[in-house]
Amino acid sequence: MNRTQHSSLTLAMAGEGDEVRITALRAGRGLDRRLTDLGLNIGACIRVVQRQGGGLIVARGEVRIAVGGGMAAKILVVPA
């Protein structure tokens, strides 16, 4: 396992206001495509705007995206 993957955590573990970079998507083909279509692809830098229960609202540039807890657990990130 390389260092980037080793130090990655899930998006679900990120705190409000954290800026992170997506390092991997641990989803099936359908969810992987859906996340990529939303702009949540590997290498994207996003900011956690708000936590709501298990879900989050993240921002990529001016776009805000609601991400459920299950989805957030499948997105690996590192601090940006």
CATH superfamily: Ferrous iron transport protein A (FeoA)
Q: Runs with pLDDT <50, length 5+? A: 1-5
CATH topology: SH3 type barrels
Give the averaged pLDDT, no decimals: 91
Distance between the termini: 20 Å
Separate helix tally: 3
Number of strands: 6
Using the coordinates above, name the CATH class. Answer: Mainly Beta
Which structural class fits the helix and strand makeup?
A: alpha+beta
Description:
By secondary structure, the protein is α+β, with helices and mostly antiparallel strands. The protein has a single domain (3-79), classed as Ferrous iron transport protein A (FeoA) (SH3 type barrels). The protein has helices at 3-6, 29-37, 69-72, and strands spanning 9-10, 19-25, 45-52, 55-60, 63-67, 75-79. A hairpin with a 2-residue loop joins strand 4 and strand 5. The longest helix is centred in the middle third of the chain and has 9 residues, at 29-37.
